[in-house]
Write a structure and sequence with these properties.
mainly beta, six-stranded antiparallel beta sheet
């Protein structure tokens, strides 16, 4: 059974995913907010281009590699991005980042997952945003973090998957930020490493 995470909550992936958990996917889903009031009769929801990113850090909090719409695979091949969804159309995961935890290099201690609004729309224009962690061995959802409240920001630091005492854990961060790409919000990420 999946755990609904709240901001700041941490879980052990070994306990929640069962022993031998090695391949996981972080799914990101969202919808464009529908216009409200009288304008809803005359206009449709705008396409929203959110981008999922996985940033790999070492124990010295240095960036090792990044997987995002401009680089769909980590240099070591352990992390792969499904590709850029520029509208949020469809149900379920709009973008997915798959991670083979057994192949993540030993010097990588944290994987931080972020979302950015590349076109600059704020989260006030987004609804039903979530990120979730899925065990790829059986496609079972391990944990889900729902983005609540939206806000007048263009980015979210969603979650961190990290090594602690030899096992992988996940922490829900849910911290708002502003920036079109991961580079813009790197200073906001460092305190969570």
């Amino acid at each position: 059974m999946a755990i609904s995470l709240i901001k700041g909550q941490k879980i052990s992936l070994a306990k929640e995913g069962g022993s031998g958990l090695t391949k996981v996917a972080m799914g990101l889903g969202w919808d464009a907010a529908k216009p409200k009031g009288i304008m809803s009769f005359f206009s449709a929801a705008k396409d929203i281009d959110l981008d999922a990113t996985c940033i790999m850090f070492d124990s010295a909090k240095q960036l090792v590699d990044v997987v995002w719409f401009r680089q769909l695979q980590s240099k070591d091949g352990s992390i792969k991005h499904s590709g850029d969804n520029r509208t949020g159309a469809g149900d379920g995961d709009d973008e997915t980042i798959s991670v083979d935890l057994s192949r993540v290099p030993a010097n990588v201690t944290s994987l931080v997952f972020t979302i950015n609004s590349f076109t600059g729309q704020t989260f006030n224009e987004v609804e039903n945003a979530f990120c979730r962690l899925v065990n790829l061995a059986n496609n079972q959802e391990i944990a889900k973090y729902s983005l609540s409240g939206g806000g007048n920001v263009t980015a979210q630091i969603m979650a961190k998957v990290y090594r602690h005492n030899g096992e992988w854990k996940m922490a829900a961060i849910g911290e708002p930020a502003n920036g079109r790409t991961f580079q813009d919000i790197l200073p906001n990420i460092v305190p969570y490493l």
